[in-house]
Amino acid sequence: MAREAYKEITSLDHKDFVVACTGLHVSVSSAHLGASPDGLTSCSCCGKGIVKIKCPYSYYQVQGQMGIMECCYCDFVVWTTIDIFIERIPFDKEFFDSIKTKLDSFFLKVILPRVLVGEKKPRETHISKQGEFGAMIECDNPSCKFGWIHFGCVGLVEEPTGSWFCQDCI
Known about the structure:
single chain; alpha+beta; 2 domains; 3-stranded antiparallel sheet; Lambda Exonuclease, Chain A
């Protein structure tokens, strides 16, 4: 319903406008990155683009998908049964490059080691201890330069469950 409403409205202002269904697209230059827009768009006046239809706005996701798919715009659609809002968001290469650096780092430091070595034995809570200045937590990256960190230094009030990495290791 939302895609059809978007297509009907957008077709009025764009020549030869087409919206095609799509699935996952893996980046040609960075195979560990993928995008799953809600549609591929094209028209004679603007070229190729993507459409993302959702209620919660996610600038990072939209910019990331455009960067991965090498598109110059995304039509962001907020749809309800009462109304539809469409905003064309241009690709911001500088912004994408800054988040791609973080995505690459996260992939190399967190995901790839898990894929190559396998998941560590899960535990209910992290190993923690009382330090001179209160509770401490150990970063789950075995190569972490800090190792043990005070709860207060990283804004923790209680022990998290699952894996935990300090800001340097993310």
